[in-house]
Amino acid sequence: MTxxxxxxVENLQTQFFTEEGTVRAVDGISFEVNEGEIVGLVGESGAxxxxxxxxxxxxxxxxxxxxxxxxTYKGTKIVDIExxxxxxxxxxxxxxxxxxxxxxxRGNEIAIIxxxxxxxxxxxxxxxxxxxxxxxLNRDVxxxxxREIAVDMxxxxxxxxxxxRYDSYxxxxxxxxxxxxxxxxxxxxxxSLIIADEPTTALDVTVEGQIIDLVHxxxxxxxxxxxxxTHDLGVVAxxxxxxxxxxxxxxIESADVDDLFHDTKHPYTEALLQSIPRPDQTVEELxxxxxxxxxxxxxxxxxxxxxxxxxxxxxxREFHPTEQDVSEAVTATHRVACVKYESIGYEDAxxxxxxxxxxxxxxxxxxxxxxx
Length: 372
Ligand SMILES: Nc1ncnc2c1ncn2[C@@H]1O[C@H](COP(=O)(O)OP(=O)(O)OP(=O)(O)O)[C@@H](O)[C@H]1O
Ligand code: SF4
Ligand SMILES: [Mg+2]
Hints:
Layout: E1 7-18, E2 21-33, E3 38-42, H1 49-56, E4 64-73, E5 76-83, E6 89-91, H2 98-105, E7 110-113, H3 117-120, H4 127-138, H5 143-156, H6 162-165, H7 175-188, E8 193-197, H8 205-222, E9 225-230, H9 233-239, E10 242-247, E11 250-256, H10 257-262, H11 267-274, H12 314-318, E12 324-325, E13 335-336, E14 352-353, E15 365-366
Parallel strand pairs: 3-9, 3-10, 7-8, 8-9, 14-15
Antiparallel strand pairs: 1-2, 1-4, 4-5, 5-6, 10-11, 11-13, 12-13
Helix pairs in contact: 4-5, 4-7, 5-7
Iron/sulfur cluster binds near residues 309, 311, 339 and 340.
């Protein structure tokens, strides 16, 4: 047993080179996943969650490219981008090749579950056959044994009558059942880490609850770690040990789940929390987050949240905050990127009028740079 995390993401950067310009979809994120831990990646649509997970799996499609950072899995560099002599990003010598990634990592070490099960399941083949083929491809077993494992896995994830359902087509399963099949597929090769990209978003609340219970059981039984992507902090509270909150390509707060909910530091996390139902709140107290997330192609200067932040001040428009360690407990790390936690004059700066402070009226400085 080592102290090294199972997965370590350091300064990961992924960009899309489009005709309109460069989209900095993931812009220098760092986080860790320890053995047996469920780590959440949360944020609104467009925050960069899916690009982050596909970067870790090295499944970014053109015009996208990982342009910087390192991802270390069990001591192996699955991503390691350095600057070449021409100034362009290039893989280091230590980084696994595409073939090594395919043969050694994807499926049998790290598995991914996508938001839409129909993306992962082929509609023209029977569910059992797809599962069996996947097992044969990734494990050293023959067809008959792979079939047995497939049926066992279907039973394990709660598919009733798995022998019979083995011969069903994907469209004969409900959404929740299809998602169970994907979990079975992810588990089939006994990976140490499963990356789940919004696996319950398309499901109704009851089925979502069942899937979450299933994941808890499986985590305990197989000691699998998870990266759990969601835009729903309610799900985070149910399932995660640690949470990373993303905004416009960056992680702006990361903490143990209890600290995130009860000792919230970042105004964006605060706003996210205000927008979800909690046991200690009435529905009337819920407030949707004001404004829309700006385009990643041309993010706001300084703190990227300053156009929507109720606490924004002039300094927030100029200064780009970096993650600060604000941990109080010795064991749990709590990090936040907000100028309030840096000594660069937040206290003395003038308030900014932002989308969240419209009703403050004039006298404030407009987030665009004009005096209101
Ligand atoms: N193929 C692509 N070409 C150009 N830009 C892209 C591409 N894929 C993603 N992006 C951009 O990258 C940013 C991050 O997208 P991503 O899909 O990771 O968001 P997300 O947090 O997963 O959102 P959602 O909750 O909607 O799934 C967005 O600005 C998106 O427009
Ligand atoms: S840096 Fe300023 S704008 Fe950004 S979250 Fe903190 S207070 Fe708000
Ligand atoms: Mg996504």
